[in-house]
Specification:
- This protein is 11% helix and 24% strand.
- The protein has 1 helix and 4 strands.
- The longest helix has 10 residues.
């Protein structure tokens, strides 16, 4: 973690995911209107994503059981969009 974009990083040799399965395509994103973060990664041999939650970006807890995912991205990402942008996407991609 660093407060600079291109320097000051310290390597932390620990896994943030909570599985012994092979994973790839990890993405971290902040939840809307919350101080919590989500880590999403592809457990590719099982064909599913697993989600973990954190408040400090160091310790993550699995929350997959309480999450409904009706999509199956491959190395996707999560980003905030406005209500207007969501409406356009819904209208054009059903």
């Amino acid at each position: 973690m660093s407060d600079k974009l291109t320097s000051g990083y310290i390597w932390e040799d620990n896994d943030l995911h909570h599985t012994s399965e092979a994973v790839e395509g990890g993405d971290v994103f902040k939840l809307n209107n919350s101080e919590e973060w989500m880590l999403m990664y592809d457990v590719y041999r099982k064909g599913k994503y697993e989600l973990c939650r954190s408040t400090d970006l160091h310790k993550f807890e699995v929350v997959t059981q309480g999450v409904s995912m009706d999509f199956h991205p491959r190395h996707g990402t999560v980003m905030p969009i406005t209500s207007a942008e969501a409406a356009v996407l819904r209208a054009n991609y059903k």
